[in-house]
Structure formats: structure tokens, C-alpha cells
Specification:
It comes from Chryseobacterium paridis. This is Membrane-binding protein. Keywords: Signal. The chain is mostly beta strands. It is built from 3 helices and 38 strands. The protein has a 38-stranded antiparallel β-sheet. A hairpin with a 5-residue loop joins strand 19 (247-253) and strand 20 (259-267). It is flat and about 100 Å long.
Length: 507
């Protein structure tokens, strides 16, 4: 009898030993795999009524350990404290569970061992505690933050530099979603606050980061900005603005503190609001590092507008009279004159005009040459005036610089697109078509939209429309009455051809 009991006990212990040595292998996504492809592996063993789970990195370093009532991969039901570790053996995080539900304290740490989360969960799913983020200049994070939770709905977030009691701002949110932000300057001195429940009055502050400094202070009264101060990174005032019910001013300084401009505000002729009246209005870029525009006013009229590029170089200088443009001068980065254009009756008349991705040349009020460029500077299209034929000859290019379309338009063309088009495929003329008021009159054309490619062909009184999906599969083959497409009341035209469609096509 004793011998039988001993054999039974030995078999039971052997089963436990074998069970504890069982390994499950996982790939990098924690999907089950074979030993030769594994990145992690798991060993389990019974601990009373629970199961102790231990996960390991490929090299045998412990990755996680914790108790569970069910150790099924991807469906574990944890019970108690579960801890995760880095490859170096440091604690990465731990959480506490009760029957698979997160209840109790949880903490997590970053690669440097700094606390990221220190939160306690309740049975109802709510939590209290703190979370943190830290400066990481390499990843473009320029400030620290700490969020203190009284509950998931009631919390305070603090954005700070190095000292959480120093320069900072902190936003408190209540259960109703209302918020109040308090702003602090050097050494934690209070500047003011702004509340979502009292948006008509208060203070809003903006900051530079790395290191944190005040960049702008705005004071609100009855919903309007009554005082604004902008500071340079050196702490000196760049611009100060004050307004009251009757008048106001804006004064601008250079980085050394020298006054360079002053603008006076006066009530509008209707007496409803303040408008620029006399002096120089300096507008700073979004980061306050350079000027974006300077506008000069005299007796309430704008007489000069200067625009600067993203590097702070003067780009254009616009002269105005009675708010109508008279002349625009354009400059190179070295300050030399690039071109100029004269206006008549508010329209370009003679010279070269530059706008975003656009260059236009005018002579005696007629556009004689224009170019459109992509964001990378490659030419997308150009249009030339043929004086002998009184027509425009246009060319559209693809991203590689190859010709897609050429077309001819009458100078006296109305607002609807009409043209004689030649389409090129692989650099050679392929299709010809005539378009009048956006409707094909003869020939065939093919173009690409955002989602499909259309092939449109005129056949007598009919328009043949073929539509191909992104994979080149024919998804529509229709025969449409040309008369119905030319009906101006038809707002669902399928075969309209516009200049914008050709410009956006990239076959």
C-alpha cells in the first residue's frame, strides 16, 4: 500500500515538473509560432488555485510575470500583481488585477526609469492618480507635463519647464467639462487666468519652449482684446498694443528694444469698431521670430504693403491708393529688384506678377505668358498669347515633365471652358478633341480624377463615357445624350471637361 502511494505521489510530482517546463513560443506580434521563429516564450506552473505565468525574451531575460486563473494566450485572466520588465531587467510597468479586471495600483516607467503613470483603479472602472511626460528634444518634445486625476473627468494638467513650480501653465477641468487655465511666468509668478465659463474676460498667455519663456500676453475685456504684449526670445518687448472704446495704438520694437513703428487706431466711420488710421502696422510670423507683413496707413487709408518670406527677407512691396493696388515690386533674397507690375483700374496692366506657385506676365492689360508650378518647383502648365491669332496656346505637363495636353483657346472665350485639345501619350500626340462650354463636340479625350480614369468620346448626338477604376478595370460604359449634358439645368453632368480637370490629371 505504501509502495503504491509513493508511486502515485511520484507520478503527480512528475506531472507538475513536466507541466512547469512546458514552453509556448511567440513571434514579435505575440502570435504562437515555432521555436526557430520565436521572439518570446512562456512558461507556466500552478500556484494554488492560480497559474504563474512567466514570459521571457528570446535570450531568456524575464519579460513578464503574474498570476492568472486562465493562462490562454491572448485571453489571460490575471489575478493579482502583474509585472513587465525591459530587456535590461528593469521594471517597465506593473498592474493589479482581480478576476481579469484592472483594480488597484498601476505604475509604468520610461526607458530612463522615470515614472510615467502612477494610477489606482477602482472596481467601477474609475481611477485616481498622476501621469507624466518628459522633455525629449530629439523627438521634438520641448516641455514636461504632469496630469493629476481626481477622477477620469476631473483633472489638472500642468505644462512646465524644469521646475513644476516655476514657469508653467495649468489647466483644470471639472466634471461638466468646464476648464480654467492659469498662467505663470518666471519663478512661478502669476500672470492671470482664462476660463471657458467666462470667455469675455481674462488673460491668455503663449510661450516659447526649450527653454520655456513668455512669448505673448493677451488681455480680454467684454470679448475683445484690450491689451497685447509680444516678447522676443531675449525677453524684451517686440510689440505692445492697447485699445479702448475710442482709440488705441500698436508700437513695435526691434530685438534691441529700439522703437521702429507706431500705429494709431481710431473708430470707424460707423463708430462701431477701431480701425488702423495712421502709422506702421507690423505683423509678426506665428513664432514671432520675424515680420510677415508691414502695412502703412495714412488718414485711415492703406498706402503701402510689404510682405516677407519665411526667412524674413522682403518679397514684395505693394503701393495702394484708396485701397486699390497701383504697383507691386518683387525682390530677390539679396534685396535686388526682381520685377514689377503696374495696375490700372484695379487690374494687372504691365509687368510680371508673382503669387504662390504662379507667374504671370502682362502687356497693355493682356496676359501674354503664365506659368504654374508645383510645390517642388516643377512647371505644371504654361499659357502663351498668340497675338497673330488672338488665341492662347497652353501646355500641361506631368510630374516627370512630359507633355500631357496642349490646347488652344480664343482670347475672347467666356467663363466656360472651350478649347481645341491634343492629348499626348508616352510623349506622342494620341487623341484630339474639341470642347465647347465644357462639353466635347468631337474627338476623344482621356483624363484621371482622384479615384477613376475617364475616357470621353463624341459620336454624333451621343457621348460615349468609359470609366476605369484605380486598377484599370472598366467599371462603367455609358452612352449619354449630348443634349442632356449641354442642358445648363443638369447639375449631375458626367462628361464635363474643365481646365482644372486637365491641370489635375497626371496620366
Amino acid at each position: 500500500m505504501k509502495k503504491l502511494f509513493a508511486l502515485t505521489l511520484f507520478a503527480f510530482l512528475l506531472n507538475i515538473s513536466v507541466f512547469s517546463q512546458e514552453k509556448i513560443y511567440f513571434d514579435e506580434n505575440w502570435e504562437k509560432t515555432t521555436q526557430d521563429k520565436m521572439e518570446y516564450y512562456r512558461q507556466t506552473e500552478p500556484k494554488g488555485k492560480l497559474i504563474l505565468i512567466k514570459d521571457y525574451y528570446k535570450d531568456g531575460t524575464l519579460q513578464m510575470e503574474g498570476l492568472a486563473s486562465d493562462a490562454t494566450p491572448q485571453s489571460e485572466v490575471y489575478d493579482g500583481k502583474v509585472t513587465w520588465y525591459t530587456r535590461e531587467g528593469k521594471t517597465l510597468s506593473f498592474s493589479t488585477y482581480s478576476k481579469g479586471k484592472q483594480v488597484g495600483p498601476t505604475q509604468s516607467f520610461d526607458a530612463k526609469g522615470r515614472l510615467l503613470e502612477d494610477v489606482t483603479y477602482s472596481k467601477d472602472g474609475s481611477f485616481t492618480g498622476k501621469t507624466f511626460t518628459y522633455k525629449d528634444i530629439e523627438n521634438f518634445v520641448y516641455f514636461n507635463s504632469a496630469t493629476v486625476y481626481e477622477s477620469p473627468e476631473v483633472y489638472k494638467m500642468i505644462i512646465y519647464d524644469d521646475d513644476i513650480k516655476g514657469i508653467r501653465y495649468e489647466t483644470s477641468t471639472d466634471k461638466a467639462g468646464n476648464s480654467e487655465t492659469k498662467y505663470y511666468g518666471d519663478k512661478g509668478k502669476s500672470i492671470g487666468s482664462y476660463s471657458s465659463t467666462s470667455t469675455n474676460n481674462g488673460v491668455i498667455v503663449e510661450y516659447y519652449y526649450n527653454p520655456m519663456k513668455v512669448s505673448k500676453i493677451e488681455k480680454y475685456k467684454n470679448g475683445s482684446i484690450v491689451e497685447s504684449t509680444i516678447f522676443g526670445e531675449n525677453g524684451k518687448v517686440l510689440q505692445e498694443e492697447k485699445k479702448n472704446k475710442k482709440d488705441g495704438y500698436k508700437t513695435t520694437y526691434d530685438e534691441s528694444g529700439k522703437k521702429i513703428g507706431n500705429l494709431i487706431y481710431k473708430l470707424s466711420s460707423e463708430g462701431e469698431y477701431l480701425t488702423p488710421y495712421e502709422g506702421e502696422d507690423y505683423q509678426l510670423s506665428y513664432n514671432f521670430l520675424q515680420f510677415s507683413t508691414i502695412e502703412v496707413y495714412k488718414n485711415g487709408s492703406r498706402i503701402l504693403n510689404k510682405e516677407f518670406n519665411e526667412t524674413g527677407k522682403l518679397f514684395s512691396e505693394k503701393t495702394l491708393k484708396d485701397d486699390a493696388v497701383q504697383e507691386i515690386k518683387y525682390y530677390n533674397d539679396n534685396g535686388s529688384l526682381k520685377s514689377s507690375i503696374i495696375y490700372k483700374d484695379g487690374l494687372p496692366y504691365s509687368g510680371t506678377l508673382y503669387e504662390t506657385n504662379l507667374e504671370e506676365q502682362y502687356k497693355d492689360g493682356v496676359l501674354i505668358h503664365s506659368k504654374v508650378f508645383s510645390e517642388t518647383g516643377k512647371i505644371q502648365s504654361e499659357k502663351k498669347f498668340n497675338a497673330a491669332k488672338n488665341t492662347y496656346e497652353s501646355t500641361i505637363y506631368n510630374d516627370k515633365g512630359s507633355i500631357l495636353y496642349t490646347y488652344i483657346q480664343s482670347l475672347n472665350e467666356d467663363s466656360s471652358f472651350s478649347a481645341q485639345i491634343v492629348q499626348y501619350i508616352n510623349g506622342k500626340p494620341a487623341n484630339k478633341s474639341v470642347i465647347k462650354n465644357e462639353i466635347i463636340q468631337s474627338g476623344k479625350i482621356k483624363f484621371k480624377t482622384d479615384y477613376v480614369t475617364k475616357e470621353i468620346e463624341r459620336s454624333g448626338k451621343w457621348i460615349i463615357l468609359k470609366v476605369y477604376d484605380a486598377n484599370g478595370k472598366l467599371v462603367q460604359d455609358s452612352k449619354i445624350s449630348a443634349e442632356s449634358e449641354q442642358d445648363d439645368t443638369n447639375y449631375s453632368k458626367q462628361t464635363s471637361i474643365t481646365e482644372d480637370i486637365l491641370l489635375s490629371s497626371n496620366l
